[in-house]
Design goal:
The protein is α/β, with parallel strands linked by helices and 337 residues long. The protein is built from 13 helices and 8 strands. It has a single domain, classed as TIM Barrel (Alpha-Beta Barrel), CATH 3.20.20. Strands 1-2-3-4-5-6-7-8 form an 8-stranded parallel β-sheet.
């Protein structure tokens, strides 16, 4: 549940139709991860804000120490270089100040959100060959659509990051579904991808929520890429995550064309302590969906700051075949290029 309280938060190139193929490697980690599809860096404004955020949400649980520890772009680049990673998607944490988990709501929440997005996009201008930026909004706030409009046409923005847990979105409420679909539609008009932390605060989150998302929100993306963070969960493997991913698997088998541009990142999904049966259950769903729909991601720094260890030691603990790992490690989605 750590992700709830944080911010979370192809051997061959992807061809026409965004499919992926891979050659048979000799070991699970013999294909290098070229792109980390899920990392975070807090802007200075957010870093100064997070102690108040952590104090406010202490009624839910403790913040991960990685959230309150300042990390610099140089720290991330050093970790990427050590692991041989060429590029990373940097997901803004600008949704945090407007989170309803904050009580009271900071008076300057909208300013903090905009400042976080400004800084994240600035990373791309400073390091255009290494980073891709995703701005962030709270889809239930009146600031969401104006913030998307503010960045429309900016070449430094690859997409939009949404965090449904932090934003208090309930996928079983019609008003929330309508607001979320409106934000997806605005992102599609801007020709952006969307990275969405789909899991909500509901204790019974799972298949029912995915079915509502697929029916009433996903069409608003109008074929633009959608990346589901943490394989549909919020980090870790549990009944809710497997239920959600299983619902995607069923729908994708029934109508694969609808999901051509849908991917799932494997950021923070298992650890050294994850039971073997849970890993096997995840592998079964990856195979049902198809490895070409899964992406390498770390959730750096929340899974640790050593990307070489994360991808070289922890990733191979998932019992996929070398060929399956080759596809996942080599997958690079269009919005990264």
């Amino acid at each position: 549940m750590r992700e709830m309280f944080l911010c979370s938060l192809v051997v061959a190139a992807v061809a026409i139709g965004f499919s992926a193929t891979a050659a048979e490697p000799s070991s699970p980690d013999s294909v290098a991860v070229r792109v980390d599809h899920h990392v975070h860096l807090n802007s200075p404004a957010i870093q100064a804000f997070v102690p108040k955020f952590c104090e406010s949400i202490s009624r839910y649980g403790k913040c991960d120490a990685a959230l309150t520890t300042p990390y610099s772009p140089a720290d991330l680049l050093a970790a990427m270089d050590k692991a041989g990673i060429k590029r990373a998607l940097v997901l803004s944490t600008g949704y945090l100040p407007e989170s309803p988990m904050m009580d009271p709501q900071p008076a300057d929440a909208a300013r903090l959100m905009r400042a976080a997005n400004d800084w994240t996009v600035g990373l791309v201008h400073a390091h255009p060959d290494r980073f891709r930026a995703f701005i962030a909004v709270d889809p239930l706030r009146p600031t969401a659509l104006p913030e998307i409009a503010r960045w429309k046409g900016e070449p430094g923005v690859a997409g939009l990051k949404l965090h449904l847990t932090s934003s208090g979105v309930d996928l079983r409420k019609d008003a929330h579904i309508a607001a979320l679909a409106g934000v997806f539609k605005a992102a599609a008009r801007a020709h952006w991808a969307v990275v969405v932390h789909l899991r909500t605060q509901r204790s019974d989150y799972g298949a029912a929520d995915v079915q509502r998302f697929v029916k009433d929100v996903l069409p608003a993306a109008a074929g633009m890429p959608v990346q589901i963070a943490h394989a549909g969960g919020w980090g870790g493997i549990d009944k809710a995550t497997l239920s959600a991913l299983g619902a995607f698997a069923d729908d994708m088998q029934a109508d694969p064309g609808k999901f051509r541009n849908v991917w799932f990142d494997l950021s923070g999904v298992w650890t050294d302590k994850t039971p073997a049966p849970d890993k096997r259950a995840l592998v079964a769903l990856i195979r049902k969906i198809g490895p070409s729909h899964f992406l390498a991601g770390s959730d750096w720094p929340y899974t640790g700051t050593n990307l070489a260890d994360y991808y070289g030691r922890l990733y191979p603990q998932l019992p996929l075949t070398p060929a399956e790992w080759a596809v996942i490690r080599g997958n690079v989605v269009p919005y990264v290029r």
